[in-house]
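User: Please predict the structure of the protein below. I'd like the answer in structure-token form so I can feed it into my own downstream comparison script.

Assistant: Understood. Taking the following sequence of 275 residues as input:
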Amino acid sequence: MWLAHRGRIPLLAGVLAWASTAHGELRPLWELGVGMGVTSIPAYRGARGEVVYFLPLPYLVYRGRFLRSDRQGIRGVFYQNDRFQLNLSAYAGPPVQSGQIPARTGMPNLSPSFEIGPSLQYVLIDTPGTMLDLRWPLRAAFTLSFKPIGWVSTPNLNLTLPDYRGSGWMLGASIGPNFADSRYHAYFYDVAPAYVRPGRPAYAAGAGYSGSSVYLTVSRRFAHYWVGGFLRYDNLAGASFVNSPLVETQQYFAVGVGMSWIFATSSRLVESEEP
């Protein structure tokens, strides 16, 4: 899946693996590929204007009993049954160059970040043509220097159509609210007294609601390559940090496309629950 975490850059580098095959088939234990992706997103949620990233796009699938990399990303599965799964999820975000954002002029740059934590998944509908599930991750966020910057929770309702009308294309959609603690919001939206200037008063963000996100995704696995794309809409109306002077817009779109050539697959086959 294209993993775009709430205003962060999608993880084009390593966790995009959508295979459009029937549910319950035997599949290779691992698959490897390489390609290129491009995405246009805001520097952070609420920033005006977009930043365009051209990134290498590794295609990595691993269908182990615990460690897996598939359409849901790279994760460790601690427990699962027919309806419920508990796994470990991880996400990452790019640096923010304050000099490129008028609202942050003169403020420090923001370091690249990553998030890791448990995620609950409950399957509501699971048929050969439709999968609907509820996912509720809770992740701790850090900079690359392992400085903690708070907690994030992004519950969402996720719909997958693995073979839309027999076309071989996989379509997906998800919608859900975002929540974070005050330390996480402060990292992006606080204005310390030292950085106050006309039009940018001091501000201290609180914890709570962080806006809502809608994702639309499309992908297809061909014999030797994979293609995919995503469209995301974010709305920050009612967010606990919406009055920060660093929030320049309350709604925006983000988009990305990519393609990978698959050059190696495992000869060992395993049963997979992927749609």
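That's the full token string. The helical segments are 182-189.
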